[in-house]
Design a protein that fits this description.
Elements: H1 3-11, H2 15-36, H3 40-57, H4 67-86, H5 108-111, H6 115-122, H7 126-137, H8 142-149, H9 153-173
Helix pairs in contact: 1-2, 2-3, 2-4, 3-4, 7-9, 8-9
Length: about 190
């Protein structure tokens, strides 16, 4: 079924169109949810809630940009709303070397696509993981993140810096990075 037919069917609440849309986009959106969730079950719950919103708000899609991007944005916001209900984002973990990273920001999405690194990101505290995902993967600014999470912009920046430092330590411990001097930039 073409995207246009799916969209038209979803606007008319046609179950087969909704199923086709879900089947096409749910695997990628589950990956988005998984980055924010503590476990697969939570990610699946986020995905289900997100697609409920997609189907109830489908009439708001104006065809400006890709349908997948519009769905992704709803899924990300759903994940954030679920996380906001359950925990504060101002929790932090003190790191002595939080400012000692040399990371090429433009290449973070390519590094974070490997399974080992995704699992390492999931070991980060929720606030760090969420800010890292929103900034490095989803492309939100620290100002946007601060509004989404009801935190200060400086808190978003700080958590992002600390997330990178903690991620580097985890990658070194897992021997994904061979030695501290290689830093995350060597994975790109």
């Amino acid at each position: 079924m073409t995207e246009e037919l799916m969209l038209h069917g979803c606007l008319n609440n046609t179950a087969s169109a909704q199923e086709a849309l879900y089947t096409r986009f749910s695997p990628r959106m589950l990956g988005v949810c998984y980055r924010f969730a503590r476990n697969r079950e939570d990610a699946e719950d986020m995905l289900q809630e997100g697609f409920i919103k997609v189907f109830t708000q489908i009439q708001q899609f104006r065809g400006q940009g890709a349908l997948e991007g519009w769905i992704r944005r709803i899924i990300v916001h759903t994940c954030i709303n679920i996380l906001k209900k359950n925990k504060k984002f101002t929790d932090s973990v003190d790191l002595i070397h939080a400012g000692s990273l040399y990371l090429n920001e433009n290449n973070i999405p390519s590094i974070l696509e490997t399974k080992e690194v995704v699992e390492s990101v999931r070991q980060l505290p929720m606030g760090y993981r969420t800010v890292l995902n929103l900034y490095a993967i989803e492309g939100f600014t620290h100002k946007e993140i601060s509004k989404m999470l009801d935190i200060e912009e400086s808190t978003s920046r700080s958590q992002y810096t600390r997330a990178k430092a903690m991620l580097e330590d985890i990658l070194i411990q897992k021997k994904i990075l061979q030695k501290p001097k290689e830093r995350i930039r060597m994975l790109m």
